[in-house]
Amino acid sequence: MSKEVKIDVRNLTVGYGDYVLLKDASYQVNKGDIFIIMGGSGCGKSSMLRVLTGLIAPLKGDVFIGGVNIAQGKEADVQKIRTKSGILYQSGALFSSMTLAENIMLPLQQYSDYSPATMREIAKLKLALVGLAGFDDFYPSEISGGMKKRAGLARALALDPEIVYFDEPSAGLDPISSKNLDDLIIEINQSLGTTIVVVTHELESIFAIGNNSIFLDAASKTILARGNPRDLLQNPPNQEVYEFLTRGEKK
Amino acid sequence: MSKTMNNNLISADIARGNMLVAITGDVVEYNSQDILQKIAHLIAQNPQKVTITSTQLGEWDSSLLLVIYETIRMAKTANIAYDVTTLPQNIQSLISLAFAVDRKPSHNSNNQGGFLERTGRSAIGILTKTTNVLAFFGEICMAIGRFFSFRSIMRRIDFLAALNDCGPRALGIVSLISFLVGLILAFVGAVQLQTFGAQIYVASLVTIGMCRIMGAIMVGIIMAGRTGSAYAATIGTMQVNEELDALQTMGLSRIDFLVLPRLFALLLAMPILTMLADIMGMIGGAFVGVFLMNLPYTEYWRYAFNAFNLTNFLVGIFHGFCFGFIIAICGCYSGLTCGRNADSVGIATTQSVVYSVVWMIVVTGIITVICQEIGI
Ligand SMILES: Nc1ncnc2c1ncn2[C@@H]1O[C@H](COP(=O)(O)OP(=O)(O)O)[C@@H](O)[C@H]1O
Ligand SMILES: [Mg+2]
């Protein structure tokens, strides 16, 4: 069964002005995958995510998301995919002047026709899904870092997105919270069929959740490897990938 | 979409003590209030069991999940057995995910309490605030002491950056505003004085008005708006980013590091800016006098200089100096006491401007009374 391609990146060059981070990269993300974008710090993972979510335009190349090319810098194109994707930022990025429920209701108010009471109920449901049942009246400042990430995920899921992006989901979390978040990502991927793109350099997460990946390299500005991370560990295509996946062991 | 045929997608009924919730078709953006009301009503009749089934379920989203979730929640609270085993597997696992964590968080409620409690709270609030402000003053005095005994960690570069910001960069706006204020003073005065044929005294009016008080006040308001608020926002953001905590844990004095450079910069800049404002105001007045009221140029300046009085001028400069102190203190204090979220930076900024303006007016009043008493 050939899988449906959800994100199709063609000859993409990412950078800022004259400063190129990644040259001529092409890759595809299939529907229902948990796709990992990995690489060392500063190699341009977050920048890649910003391109995928339409926050910055690439220097060159095309990004097709569900068939829509968002790399042309047309706000209308980007807007089309925005309601179909959710993003969990590194720190949760919850609006601090709103309760958790209000944070989740915000995209619903903007893009759905539910009645206010239903929106609130949906917000509560999403919080329950991420293990925060009953926290709807809490402000972001009243919950822990791990909970903020979960609440951020609940907000990312508000509009039943087809794709959810994560920027370093396990950064700043203790091993158990990090593991729980990984489990949650898998659960959501399996139950909702959501395509998931995760930017991370956390090895345990990479092996636990990823079923496809690309490895970005800052020095050569290219994709050094691609495929299932566990396969890459078995047959590392080159020294850089091997060292990365084994925490710097020399071959 | 399917919203038009909302009604028959989900049905609920009781038959022989068994409650059945049946789902069919595409359940997308389903407005669930009616059906949930009905389900609540049925559960209140205390059935033995609640069964949720689906036949030919097509597309679905959170709104369907919501109905199932709420139904089970109601059944759970009423201690009624429920059966969802015929639902698609993924819906079942989502539902169990939603019920996986079932602890009631404890919330420090924002209970306002009764009248007495609130009065008491605000009284205690005022007391602690006053103590805090006094402590802040004490800290500043100690920091100044450290500075003059060369034990301060204030960085010269910070001072120069602050000075650049509240000196050269403020020249344009201060010049413009005081020129316009001089213009307005002259206009308003001219209308009155013309009725006595004493237009030439516009020159005296503008000179005395600007030098004695208006120059300082205008500079104070401008600097409270552009510099004091910037201090509050910068320091407040540092609080949000935990930079203030970092300073403190490194054992560095926040006052030495953040407040002193800003305070010294404003103390130095304000008198000079006040002088500039005085001059620009007089030029604005002359503009009206010479070009609009056709007073002779030399005559105008002769009256202006006759009205000029060194004591008045120095009192004005002293105002400027005091205002500089007030603006720096209010700005930095608001920043340092800022909360830890984006909202509180806004509050701190507003607070710094309001406090600055209020205290400038209060201090002007005090100085005026003192001058009256000692006959200046
Ligand atoms: N807005 C920007 N303008 C210019 N350079 C930037 C910008 N954002 C990031 N960079 C640079 O791009 C590089 C990659 O950043 P980033 O994508 O955040 O890396 P990663 O997430 O992989 O650690 C860094 O060297 C950074 O200095
Ligand atoms: Mg990053």
What does this structure look like?
The complex is a heterodimer of chains A (251) and B (376). Chain A has 251 residues and is α/β, with parallel strands linked by helices. In chain A, 37% of the residues lie in helices and 25% in strands. Chain A folds into two domains: 5-84 and 161-246, Rossmann fold; 96-160, no CATH class. Chain A has a six-stranded mixed sheet with strand order 6-7-8-3-9-10. A four-stranded antiparallel sheet of chain A has the order 2-1-4-5, with helices on one face. Chain B is an alpha/beta fold and 376 residues long. Helix content of chain B is 70%, strand content 8%. Chain B has twelve helices and four strands, in the order ββαβαβαααααααααα. Chain B is elongated, with a radius of gyration of 35 Å. The complex binds adenosine-5'-diphosphate (ADP) and magnesium ion. Magnesium ion binds next to α1 of chain A.
Q: Helix and strand layout, with pairings?
A:
The complex is a heterodimer of chains A (251) and B (376).
Chain A (H helix, E strand, L loop, with lengths): L4 E12 L2 E12 L3 E6 L5 H8 L7 E6 L2 E2 L5 H8 L2 E4 L11 H12 L4 H14 L15 H12 L6 E5 L7 H18 L2 E5 L3 H7 L2 E6 L4 E5 L2 H6 L4 H7 L6
Parallel strand pairs in A: 3-8, 3-9, 6-7, 7-8
Antiparallel strand pairs in A: 1-2, 1-4, 4-5, 9-10
Helix pairs in contact in A: 3-4, 3-5, 4-5
Chain B lengths: L9 E6 L2 E10 L5 H12 L4 E12 L1 H16 L3 E3 L5 H10 L16 H34 L7 H11 L4 H24 L7 H39 L2 H7 L4 H39 L4 H11 L2 H27 L5 H33 L2
Parallel strand pairs in B: 2-3, 3-4
Antiparallel strand pairs in B: 1-2
The structure holds adenosine-5'-diphosphate and magnesium ion (MG).
Magnesium ion binds next to helix 1 of chain A.
